[in-house]
Amino acid sequence: MAGRPVKVQNSYSTSSKRGPSVTDQRHRLALSWIGEPQPFRTRAIARLFKDWKLSGVVTIGSGRPVDGRVFADPNQDGNTSNDRLPGYGRDAFLGPDYATTDLRLTRRLYVRPRLKLELVAEAFNALNRDNRRVQITDDGLTSTATNFTQIDKTIGINHFPAYYCRPANPSAATRAYAPRQVRLALRLIF
Q: For residue 66, which of 96, 90, 91 has the smallest C-alpha distance?
């Protein structure tokens, strides 16, 4: 097993506790639009395309900070979910970017004077972009960057109580957001 000796974390040092917030996103663009097309002048064709609405939302954002966490308890405080990758501050890595396009097409039909029927077709992530993500938890974005192995090791006169496995890529995406989803609906308005 390839590894390196454990670096003891200093609980009294605040330098490793400083870092960006998990909600720090440097660039974000959100566009929404609604259109009611009426391109036809002929009365019969215009009536066929009357009461249609097309709308959409486009969201594009840069990556958010990711905290490189260690899976285990290297500082032996009894909590296996609070240890950070040694040598890195809080939220030191940048996660993947995000972009999605949501579309909605509706048609309203008048059944009776006080009764309307609305047909709805929606597509979420309509362009089916592969939006990768790092594991999301209650307190923000985290990544399990490396494993900790509890092994006693003595090199020369130095005693090391454990080893870290070498991380390949601490901020690698481990999951993805939902692929394209299509929803059809029928709404009765009275």
A: 91
Question: What digits encode the pLDDT tens for the residues 66-108?
Answer: 877 776 666 677 777 677 777 777 888 888 899 999 999 999 9
Segment of 37-41, 95-99, 120-124, 169-173 carrying the highest mean pLDDT:
120-124
Long-range contacts of 77-84 (CB under 8 A, 24+ apart): 83/9, 83/148, 84/9, 84/16
Domain ranges of the chain: 20-189
CA torsion through residues 6, 12, 15, 19, sign: positive
Mean pLDDT in the chain? 78
- pTM over cut 0.85: no
φ, ψ of residue 180 in degrees (nearest 5): -55, 135
Distances, alpha carbon 12 to alpha carbons 9, 19, 52, 87, in Å? 9, 16, 63, 15
Pairwise CA distance, residues 11 & 136, whole Å: 26
Q: Do the beta carbons of residue 187 and residue 122 sit within 8 Å?
A: no
H or E stretch covering 55: strand 52-61
